[in-house]
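assembly run, all chains below
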Amino acid sequence: MRCPDRILAAFALALLTLAGPALAAADAVRAEMTAKLKSDLPSLAPADYVLGSAAFDADLRSQLAESANAATTSGVLEAGRAAWTRKFKNGRTLASCFPNGGRRIAGAYPQYDARLKRVVTLETAINQCLKTNAEPLLDIDDGKSMGAVTAYVRSLSQNQKVAVRVPAAAEASFDQGRRLYTTRMGQQNWACASCHVQGAGKRYAEQPLSPAIGQGASSVVIRGGQAVTLQARVRECLERMGVAPFAAGSDELNNLEYYLTYLSNGLTLQASPWRAARATRG
Amino acid sequence: MRIASCILACAAGMALPVCAQQTPALDLFVRPDKGYCIACHQLPAGSGPATRSDLGPALAGSRMRELGKPKLRELITDPTVAKPTTVMPPYGRHRILDAREIDRLTDFLHALP
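ok done. output:
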């Protein structure tokens, strides 16, 4: 039996309604967030959003400046460089999969892959390269392997501006990331935005809360001598919220990273900055 | 009656975790596996650990007594009823604390200087 078009249209409309508000254009979302943070944090220069918690604490700022070489002194960059230039069995390398050997590419990730119809982060692009070359994949959540590689690639894009594109086909992925960031969930009933938009600049467990804009500019940080990816940090937050975290590299977290990094467009990419250790909870 | 039963049972050497494990109110306020209120709220000097945390308002006894115990209990149980945009967790509705723990926390807040 063929459904009349009017019934199909009504069904589609109902599905869209259930799926939440209409898609917001990425530019408008970023403009709204920029205005909100400027209004809530008038004394903080937008360029300083990339400092994270340190933007609100003089001692943390000093430690951040003193630890400017944390990625080098911790050995993270050297480990990443070794992995990046290691020859595969077929003679190729990770560097050979990327334009210009990976120089000045990091600011454009994550990107929407129209062929795959999904968001590709730098980490997933690295694993795609390994897969194409029949090499074992890296654990996306592992700071020692994948974290070190992405820290190294990002060091090749030092001082590049974040420039993530959201084409029309990617609006749904971007919007899923936005909704994930702003939806309350878990036992604590928090959204990411509860702390990093509503509470940005205030202190939770002594630590100032970083603003949503800027987080994506520091997608890999050095904490306790190890590389920690943005998705690993999001997963820690989700655990604090009392939520079973999505897997690193899942579409959910890739879309969230896409949204967050787009919010940082125009800011200077921070190649593996130092971050203070986090207070543990429970 | 319940206290008397506990004393009798403890005197008889019976293991009664409920008697033995009642968490002090300040612990409910401070412990990360309980309320962890200290992560967001400052207490009046001398009432508990000092903190710079300020995601939630600083707590003063006068304001707590102005609210009164029933309102305080409601706020701890589910603060989103009074303020839907709050970031405070719904301790009762999401079973982070049980009813007796909420009562003890209410008494603690109500008695702050």
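Chain A touches chain B at residues 187-190, 194-195, 198-199, 202-206, 209, 242, 280-282 (CB under 8 Å).

Residues 1-22 of chain A have pLDDT under 50 and may be disordered.

not gonna interpret more than that til we talk
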